[in-house]
Design a protein that fits this description.
Helices cover 32% and strands 22% of the residues. By secondary structure, the protein is an alpha/beta fold. The chain has 2 domains: 277 residues, TIM Barrel (Alpha-Beta Barrel), CATH 3.20.20; 127 residues, Beta Barrel (Lyase, Ornithine Decarboxylase, Chain A, domain 1). Bound molecules: pyridoxal-5'-phosphate (PLP).
Length: 410
Amino acid sequence: MEISEERLAENYRVLAQAAGDEVAVLAVVKADAYGHGAELCAPVLAQAGAPWLGVTDAQEGVTVRGALKLAIPSSQQPKVLVMSGLLADEAGAMSAWDLTPVVWTIEQMEWLRRAVESRGPGERLDVHFEIDTGMTRQGAVPGAELDRVLGWLAAQRTLRLDGVMTHFASAEVAGSHLTLEQQQRFEQAMAQVRARRLRPQWVHAGNSSTIDNSAEDAHADAVNASASSSRLPWLRRIAAEAGARPMVRTGLGLYGYCLPIEQEEDFLGAAAAQVRSRLRPVMTWKTCVIGVREVPAGTRIGYNGTFTAQQPMRLALLPIGYADGLRRELSSTNDRPGGWVIIAGRCASILGRVSMNLTVVDVTEIPEAAVGSEAVVLGEGVTADDHARIAGTIPYEILCGLRAFHALRP
Ligand SMILES: *Cc1c(COP(=O)(O)O)cnc(C)c1O
């Protein structure tokens, strides 16, 4: 798997530019950088200017911090946000590895407080606090629950509230009622934060699609001429009220993909994608042909013989399969085509079932194909969107399901 350093850095710049000058962009490298290799990608994104990286748990945070330490001087290290809560036994790693946990319960903060205090007097730890504005996954619910937890946080000194965040359920839907409701709840929650005299440095919300879909709020704010020139006016307003910096968290877009924008039924604005067309896939997943053979008409191919050659065919064998993340849904039958790879610039269709570690493709029309020929499994001519469409899923699941050796390429 080749990871293009140039494209990764360029996608970061495209997203950062689209987010606007005042809005910072956190680069999400969770799930091994969506299958791209977090240890390769984290330093590239840091050098591209990401002030924050996002991981899912302490273990990933330790890996990413370790990779950053090898590549980046300590004064220029980005912060690392651990986004999916924590377990009691992860609390110690947060302060030891300079990670910033996302929290929303007193229990979590008690674990952290004890871990930090055990490191010595005067030790402090920054935390980011998540508000559940409607996704019902993680976060404190605005109102009495939020006030109780904020009250606890405001009363002690070991933990410092560095950020407040929320996450949207329908960022790719233009004119989403759900998103609007979530933005309003977030604003109410921020009023509760202010009422407790807490002063976070950062306020963040949204993902790649939030930036891609930001034409709609530029539209909504068109009356306000100065706001229309910069994106995400609601986020900038909420952050400004708190005296904090606004930030968006991008993952998929960094790797060159973005969900298509959908529209709420009653949406009247123009839903134009802001960045989708300018993002380029970062990963090229390649393998080599390990066998070539010719078969007569009538030959059945692969498990259960789901594909039968209708005429003499030339087949190439590839040493990859579903164990590597090549989805089994890309299998074919005579009635239903499946996926394809690119060999010598041409499409070679997958024939029969994708097996655990082997896949057969059709090279009847590709005479150059020989043992050792390169086959592009994902890259120019075949994308994670193609695989997702055939497998009935989203590109996220395709990318983070891949398992391969990674190498960085300029
Ligand atoms: C994964 C994640 C993101 C990034 O989302 P993309 O759709 O990949 O841009 C943002 N915020 C949180 C909390 C996440 O878990």
